[in-house]
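Page 42, continued from yesterday. The earlier attempt failed because a stray header line got pasted into the input along with the sequence. Redoing it now with the clean sequence only.
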Amino acid sequence: MINTGDTAFLMICAALVFLMTPGLAMFYGGLVRRKNVLGTAMQSFILIGIIGLEWIYLGYTLSFGPDIGGFIGGLKYLALKGVGQEPHPDYASTVPHLVFMIYQCMFAIITPALITGAFAERMRFIPFLIFSLLWAILVYNPVCHWIWGGGFLAKKGVLDFAGGLVVHLTCGVAALAAALVVGPRKGFGRESFVPHNLPLTLLGTGLLWFGWFGFNGGSALAASGLAASAFVATHLGGLCGMLMWVFVEWIHRGKPTTLGAASGAIAGLATITPAAGFVGPNSAVAIGLIAGLVCYLAVLLKNKLRYDDSLDVVGIHGVGGLVGTLCVGIFASKAVNPSGANGLLFGNASLLGTQIFGIVVVGLYTLVVTFVLLKLVDALFGLRLPLEDEVAGLDLSEHSEEAYNF
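This time it went through. Structure tokens are written below.
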């Protein structure tokens, strides 16, 4: 039976997750140079349309249709056939099927949008659209099915409450492949690429944090005690990630920065995401602190390895998703979520091995398919902006407009 409270709750959470994509546009837009702010924001905004339609006509059924061999969903829900006002007994039995579908749609939209930070300021618009659409079909939809749609990783016992593997690890690994294939920005290693508008980035951080309550809390799929637990864990993970990042940065660089606070918050939120519905408050604090330290070190490592991940998608989202998935294997407790499992600290060491298996499978699959897609799109259309267009900036060369007309 439909529960009106659960339905209203999940619809609100869907709207919160939707807000994260415009929030991401502001977050990324503030971090790039002023000549690229609109082009960077557009890469997030346009995916609301492109991936939204992909999800309606193909993505939802590939992700949540009847299982085929543990790998992909069948075509039962093609173009939303049979997805109506009645609940789906296997996914969300107290809300209309349409509500569950549109909630999951918002996850599908923001995941490829997160990748754009890795190649910010240097990818052409049309090849970007083609790559994003193909990536959603060939990477996001299968991985989503493996874990949330009844696929083989779910049957293996891999746990991912709200997207540590499905969202953050996939986008982080894809970001690494993109940074390597597209290559560094002109002047990388010689010029300083300073964010042009940090207040805009802080606004984006606030919108992302706000939306994350729907991202994680809504993944309980009901207005329940589990949703409340995930809500609190989300906030604790974010604030502890922020505090730890700023603390480490203060010691390492001599001064705390607003960019560090924003980066640490997103790192904490990304890392708590897979664990939010499986851990209590104290474990959430520990995970947030771990996130702030490890993700800060991962960003430093990027500079030593010298690959141009423009906006630190790999170090924050990829590493955050990986660490958070491991933390599920350590901190998960059936006292918090009886449908989950106990982790290492609660007497079940095998869960950690299961989580590692999930990381390896998702990571390798995403890396290989993303690399092949990028090479294919590059060969057919050319991913990289011509040098003169990169110098002029995305705003003028790709969209014929400027963010600031003084």
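Notes: Residues 4-393 form a domain with the Ammonium transporter fold fold (CATH 1.10.3430.10).
Reminder to self: strip header lines before submitting.
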